[in-house]
Amino acid sequence: MKDQELKEQSDYSKQLLHTIPSAVFTLDNDRKVTSWNKMAARITGYEASEVIGQNAEKFSFHPCRENCRLFCGEIVAPEDNLHCKIRHKNGDVRYILKNVDVLRDDRGEIIGRIECFNDVTDKMLVEERLKESEMRLNLTTSSTNIGLWDWQLKTGKTVFNEQWAAIIGYTLAELEPINTNTWIKIGHPDDIAVSGARMNDHFAGLTDAYECEMRLKHKSGQWVWVLVRGKVIEWDENGKPLRMVGTHIDITERKNTEEELRGKERLIAAVAMSIKELIETPDYLKAVARCFELIGEATKVDRVYLFASYEDEQGNAAVSQVVRWEAGENGPQAVNPEIQNIPLRGRESIIAPLLRGEAYYGTVRELKDATVREIFAEHNVQAIILLPINVRGRLWGAVGFDECKYERRWTEAEYSTLSAFANSLEKTIERSMIADELEAAKLGAEAANELKSQFVASISHEIRTPIQAILGYSALLKDKIENEQSANYLSAIEKAGNTLMSLISDILDLSKIEAGKIELQPGEVSVRRLFDDISEIFAWRIEEKNLALNIEVDDDLPRTVLLDEVRARQILFNLVGNAVKFTKAGTITVSARAVNRDLRAGTLDLVLAVADTGIGIPEDQQQAVFEPFKQKDGQSNKMYGGTGLGLAISKRLTEVMGGSIEVKSKSGLGATFTVTFPLVIAGKADGAAHSARTKDALRRPERQETAAEAGQADRPVPGEMLERLEQLKEGLWLDCVRTNRVNDIKKLAKAIREIGDSYRHEETIGYAETLQAYARAFDLKNIKMLLERFPRLIDRLER
């Protein structure tokens, strides 16, 4: 009965052991497993048959075994919880939390151990990750200087970490007295409003998070830039924020770098605009004044100035200020009268580096020369930079920049950019000197050209007289000499005399053109009749060479146009003459057409062309044929004759008339010469705009007035209108002539148009419209010609 009870008790114990929700196993004193429940098998992966009788080392770690005091023979309190690691059957490491106790026999002797454990691997891994995350966060915030804050909005109490306090130079203990709403107390007033607005947007749910860049006052008194980010993590039942957490990151260095870059960009842009100003403005001193304004505002210095060096009457070196800009002053700034004729003796410490091509710069307090320190101190200068201006191998002067507010340290970027401006200024001054020399040379050349023209005209007339006598006597002798040989001699004399007379006429024409003595006489010309005249002149030569002459006139061409008929006839005579001369067989075509016709304005572009099927011109020689005394290479003068002046005269006459000439040709395949006269005015019969918009007359000097203009000229021009035109001439017109700026020219044209409209003066309106058209097309050549006519327009109106 007792054995049966023991057996039942044992079965009950085993059944109980397997139903316990924890792993339970027992060991004997030899560390062999004596029992193993189902939960132990589930946690370790080993079945009871695999471990019973086996040494416990099969699934335990040595350090764990020692830490658990499993075999130390010590009594372990049942309440002790031990964290250990075991090795799963698949090799994984599992974390367990276990209790250990001893097993005793009836005599109280220790016969083994019993262990009860649970798998806490997931919990331990989470704790390890949390610890690792906290460690990384602490490492990150300390190494990246990230400040953390936790703000209780209801009380205003804020908790910071050490990095937050360090950003503004405090310790946490020092921040404690001003803890409530700390950043409001130390925030920059200009930034608090912006920060508050963005925070309210977040509180209202308009943004997922709050973010703002703002300045906080450092313990030293300086402002520190921080990037603030935050998020509400706790709300009350009414949707009001209760708790907010976030970070502060010190971005002062970044903001300083950005400001430095913006300053650098401003300076580069100012120097670029200054270089453009130096290139476009003829008067370099005016350009420099504008440049100083641009660069001074970009660098935020107090003064910019230009010195020019020279030798006085005694041969002593001296400098004078020639351009000055000072911050805070408006309009043109006069040079300082106290900084004129300053001797350089005693200032060698400044001049020496400039002579070496180096900059002179630094804070005044640190300058070694006491005399120089005193000079700068008198003008409140705290930091200075002087850059040398070297022109043609000598020190022309220097450009200087004064800082009077603080001891400025010039950056490498500022130095290099300002040096680039100084180099451009050097080139501008040198270009101005060259321009002055060229102007002097031009005046000398013009005087020499005038003398040449007078000489050519005089000698031409002197030569013509005896030649005319030779030709006259030759004509008289022709009827009296019967000897055939003598008649041949006389014919040769007559032919040579005619050739020489033609050459003298061409030379005289070319000389007049080059001297600007050609006076155009525009009038109404019928292009069709002009073509008929030319065909009649060359009819016998064309018939003699058995050529065909085609005349083509566009149906859209007006019956008459305003043109200098004599010069147009001379151009066509030369072109058709060349075509006949160099065409052995085939056709010569003379054509005229109108393009870009504006019926409202009564203008058109007249295109005249002469095409032949002659010997042609190689492409590489097509421009040379327009030069005086030039003919196609290999051309036989004996065969074709000529002086090589015809095309040169035609080209120059075309340009004087405001047109252009071009040639298209291939050797052996003929040539086409095209003459284009832009903005030619249609005759009276072809539009009412003829009298009201005589643009050609404004473009070409010394024209004949139309009847409508002559009629208007008979009426007196109001004195007030003349006075307004005179004011424009003394002001805006003068600026336009000096600078040739298109924007200023547009303003001038608009102002003239307003005056013309006010008094309904058609000629003034026509002048303004033409000037506006040229300005829109950036036609600088015709703009210059038209500007030169403005004073003459006023003089004519005054008469």
Radius of gyration: 52 Å
Note poorly predicted spans: 65-73, 75-79, 633-642, 687-714
Find the count of extended strands (DSSP E, 2+ residues). Answer: 23
Largest sheet: 6 strands, antiparallel
Strand content: 15-25%
Count of separate DSSP helical elements: 28
Average pLDDT across residues? 78
Helix amount: 40-55%
Brief account:
The protein has 28 helices and 23 strands.
Verbal overview:
The chain is α+β, with helices and mostly antiparallel strands and 799 residues long. It contains 28 helices and 23 strands. The protein has a 6-stranded antiparallel beta sheet with strand order 13-12-11-16-15-14. β22 (660-665) and β23 form a beta hairpin. α15 (484-514) packs parallel to α20 (646-656). It starts with a helix and ends with a helix.
